[in-house]
Write a structure and sequence with these properties.
By secondary structure, the chain is mainly alpha-helical. It has a domain at about 60-185. Helices cover about 55% and strands about 5% of the residues. The chain has 5 helices and 2 strands. It has helices at about 60-80, 90-105, 115-140, 145-160, 160-185, and strands at about 1-5, 20. A two-stranded antiparallel ribbon has the order 1-2. It is rod-shaped, with a radius of gyration of 35 Å.
Length: about 180
Amino acid sequence: MTAPTPGADGSSPRPQTAQHYSVAPVLDTPDGYVAPGMPGVPVAGYAPTTPRTTPRRRTALALTLALLAALLSGLAYGCAPLRAADTLGWLTIAQAGLVALPLGRLGGRNRLLPPLGALLAAGALLTGQLTEHLRLLHAEAPTPHHLLPDTLTTWRADLRPLDLAFYAIALIGGFLLTRRTANRT
């Protein structure tokens, strides 16, 4: 291959002579360019993979963490000091938030997760109230024979309209907080 070299002949009026190369000169090519037919060239019609623009959803992990959060927040609610029992109902908002956070962040915009978040938040409140009544029964008689039926009986007898309002708050809060945390990602 020949290429003209500027100024090789000096300042003579003759035309420039061609310079001979034993190897082809390297052309200015963009980074990542591979000549057609060379190894590494993509097949025609093949689009290379692009990085994921949406985050990966891990629904099973979200459900597992939400169940764990519901159980732990219910136990924490039930093991709170007994003298604060009347003011604990408002903590159901925190329980709903603890359940909704993993469901929304890890589960994403799945349509089944907000209703599930509502049910888990209400279940956390129920777990907390049953744990509280179990503690009251255990404080009265350290070794009761019928622990679960007695706990349910005292829970039903102690149920007030304000408790039903707290269940409504747990259901609505679990639903809305799960949906809101899913939309932020």
